[in-house]
Design brief:
323 residues, 17% strand, 9-stranded mixed beta sheet, alpha/beta, Rossmann fold, 8 helices, binds S-adenosylmethionine
Amino acid sequence: MNDTAEYYRDEQVILLLGDALEVLRTQPAGSVDCIVTSPPYFGLRDYGTEGQYGLEATPAEYVETMRRLFAEARRVLADDGTLWLNLGDSYAYPPGSAGRQGDGQRRDRTFTAEGLRGTNVLPAKNLLGIPWRTAFALQDDGWILRNEIIWSKPNAMPEPVRDRLSTRHEHLFLFSKSQRYHFDLDAIREQALPHNQQHQERYGDRYDPRYAAPGTRHGKDKSTLRKAASPAGRNPGDVWSISTRPYPAAHFAVFPIDLPLRCIKAGCKSGGTVLDPFSGSGTTGAAARQLGRRYIGIDLKPAYHDLAKERFAQGVLDFDATA
Ligand SMILES: C[S@@+](CC[C@H](N)C(=O)[O-])C[C@H]1O[C@@H](n2cnc3c(N)ncnc32)[C@H](O)[C@@H]1O
């Protein structure tokens, strides 16, 4: 542990101050069980801090930054650990022009207005595909990509665009370090709607032959399917509908606590340690505390760690999950 980086510590939480990559280099190998994080998105926000990520000149440079960072995070992650990486996309904007988010203050997390900086890599108006560019690079580096989860936002802010559809989602990628890893599906199962359950039991094997027992025809043996349709509830699937929630104290986008809550329930063993290398106002930390996990948060900006400390001091009520 690098003592100079330590900004705050209590029984459950350690907040470390500094550049995420530098600080990660000081952390022991295999010392965290789960990483849940939302890095600065490409070209969308100026956090006003020297050394901040997200203002690289091109998507390729941004991907390189993320790649170096997550290679180090991979070393710090236990072999059976998971990484939950939230990323939003951005659009190419004419070089030299400032986008509509030039004040760096937009609080909505639907980052669809053209970006803060230009990029001359693609013609203006192009959706850059940053989440997938990053995901492919991480795969190349050995991460196993297990899910592309669409975070759908029912209350996304309207956008002043007339020549394309407005964006109402972000990506959440689930990566593992190894083939076998801790994943507690039961902890995040959801109540099946009665008619869906019946429908699945009757027709599930038509959609997925694995549900049909060997040697049976469709609809004859439902035992395998019944096992898949657990009485504990159904698999929540890879589209998560979670409303954004304004957090007035932060002048930047925080993710709703329901998001890290679900990731941690499934991805972090009981009593384990969750890491967020881009801690911001500490939403991941608040979720970890609520679920009885330890938390290590890294951020460049002391003011954000102060916000996190305030949130932690308020206890869990302020962060109750709605989903
Ligand atoms: C999208 S915000 C994270 C918000 C967080 N999920 C929350 O709910 O509050 C990204 C964070 O990354 C931090 N950041 C930017 N560059 C960084 C760097 N090089 N090292 C560490 N933190 C950095 C910013 O200060 C900001 O707090």
